[in-house]
């Protein structure tokens, strides 16, 4: 069994709906190194994206799963995996972020068939928003899928849920929108009835460890966590933490450029903790 075995890998979640997570993106310094690492570790293939020579589209089984952009140096942002949330109006959302003590680092910026914003919440966790402006624009173009789930590790899950709810319009009642529920001291975000993200507390003020500093954790489902860890270490990455969780296991890894990501063999971001 390998981490790229399509017969055993969990089914990818569909990221869709108003205010939902719509994409995951790696901000890095070296596209060639990132392509080699993630190709060997997660079995991805790559093609140049529509945003120019500094952008790659990662695919798994022919399905687009993530973007990788060599923009960390150009925009003076940290090497990191970042989630993007679908919005109807990037200008309005950028204003909401600032009004609620968040930070807008870049944008709104016209990029391809959309407008993007790079931002951070009031505890410093980075995220992006995306306004789709292409032909026959929809909030989530048909076929957009990602082999990824999200978890925000932050200081106060309740406060973070209020921030993102007000900024992105969660619980707005809009058709296809996101809803939140409080499950065992975590906030579970559901879009179109499907759990796609969790928000949990536990970070410590000014903690130097990037695993506990407030950040969005991108989780990639794999068939074999151990094999994926081995592949990462063989390709210059490092294991930060491995842990057993209910119904499976997960491991947090660091790529050679410093980007943190998590792999898991749990089949739902809810972890079936709603039982």
Report on this model:
This protein is of the alpha+beta class and 275 residues long. It contains five helices and 16 strands. The strands form two sheets. It has an eight-stranded mixed sheet with strand order 2-3-4-1-5-8-7-6, with helices on one face. The chain has an eight-stranded mixed sheet with strand order 10-11-12-9-13-16-15-14. α3 (90-99) packs antiparallel against α4. The protein is globular. The model is unreliable at 1-16, 136-146, 203-209 and 271-275 (pLDDT under 50).
N-to-C CA distance: 30 Å
Estimate the global geometry from the Cα principal axes.
globular
Question: What's the Cα radius of gyration?
Answer: 17 Å
Helical percentage? 10-25%
**What value does the average pLDDT take?**
76
Number of strands: 16
InterPro entries: Anthracycline_SecMetBiosynth, Glyas_Bleomycin-R_OHBP_Dase, Glyoxalase_6, Glyoxy/Ble-like_N, VOC_core
Protein name: VOC family protein
Pfam families: Ble-like_N, Glyoxalase_6
Organism: Streptomyces mutomycini
């Amino acid at each position: 069994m390998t981490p790229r075995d399509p017969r055993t890998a969990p089914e990818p979640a569909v990221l869709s709906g108003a205010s939902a997570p719509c994409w995951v993106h790696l901000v890095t310094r070296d596209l060639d190194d990132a392509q080699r690492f993630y190709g060997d570790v997660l079995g991805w293939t790559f093609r140049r994206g529509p945003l120019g020579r500094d952008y790659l589209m990662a695919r798994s089984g022919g399905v687009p799963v993530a973007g990788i952009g060599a923009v960390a140096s150009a925009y003076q942002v940290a090497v990191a995996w970042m989630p993007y949330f679908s919005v109807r109006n990037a200008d309005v959302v950028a204003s909401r972020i600032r009004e609620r003590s968040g930070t807008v680092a870049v944008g709104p910026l016209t990029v391809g068939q959309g407008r993007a914003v790079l931002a951070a919440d009031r505890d410093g966790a980075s995220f992006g928003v995306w306004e789709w402006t292409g032909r026959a624009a929809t909030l989530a173009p048909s076929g957009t899928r990602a082999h990824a789930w999200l978890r925000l590790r932050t200081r106060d899950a309740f406060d973070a849920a209020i921030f993102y709810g007000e900024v992105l319009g969660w619980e707005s009642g809009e058709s296809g929108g996101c809803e939140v529920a409080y499950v065992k001291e975590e906030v579970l975000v559901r879009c179109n009835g499907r759990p796609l993200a969790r928000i949990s507390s536990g970070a410590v003020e000014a903690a130097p460890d990037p695993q506990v500093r407030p950040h969005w954790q991108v989780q990639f489902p794999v068939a074999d966590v151990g094999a994926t860890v081995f592949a990462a270490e063989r390709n210059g990455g490092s294991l930060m933490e491995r842990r057993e969780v209910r119904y499976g296991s997960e491991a947090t890894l660091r790529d050679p450029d410093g980007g943190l990501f998590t792999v898991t063999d749990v089949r739902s971001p809810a972890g079936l903790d709603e039982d």
